[in-house]
Specification:
The structure is a single chain. The protein has a two-stranded antiparallel sheet. It contains three helices and four strands; from the N terminus they run βαββαβα. It has a single domain, classed as 2-Layer Sandwich (Alpha-Beta Plaits). The longest helix has 9 residues. With 99 residues, the protein is α+β, with helices and mostly antiparallel strands. The protein starts with a strand and ends in a 24-residue tail after the last helix. Keywords: 4Fe-4S, Electron transport, Iron, Iron-sulfur, Metal-binding, Transport.
Length: 99
């Protein structure tokens, strides 16, 4: 079962999760990240690194964000791999628990 990136990532794009991923499952959009479910090995590394609580196991995605399971699955195929740390966006909508 794959992990899913949800809306709290939008505008933040903090890449600790992508850098921690051992299988290069993360994809980079303009202002967010996604996870390719066909690559994700559900190892928990990214979950521990996300300071905005945007990553959930597929079966634990909050009801209001269930559509993001499909968004990650479809849209991740169109985006480039991200594996390195980058400067975060940190738009005003980011709700960071720690950085």
């Amino acid at each position: 079962m794959a992990y899913v990136v949800t809306p709290p990532c939008i505008g933040c794009k903090i890449t600790y999760c992508a850098a921690a991923c051992p299988v290069e499952a993360f994809r980079e959009g303009e202002n967010y990240l996604l996870i390719d479910p066909d690559i994700c090995i559900h190892c928990n590394d990214c979950l521990r690194e996300c300071p905005v609580n945007a990553i959930f196991p597929e079966d634990e995605v909050p009801v209001v964000w269930k559509e993001w399971i499909g968004i990650n699955a479809r849209e991740s195929k169109k985006l480039p791999i991200i594996r390195d740390l980058k400067t975060p966006l940190l738009d005003k909508q980011c709700n960071i628990r720690e950085l």
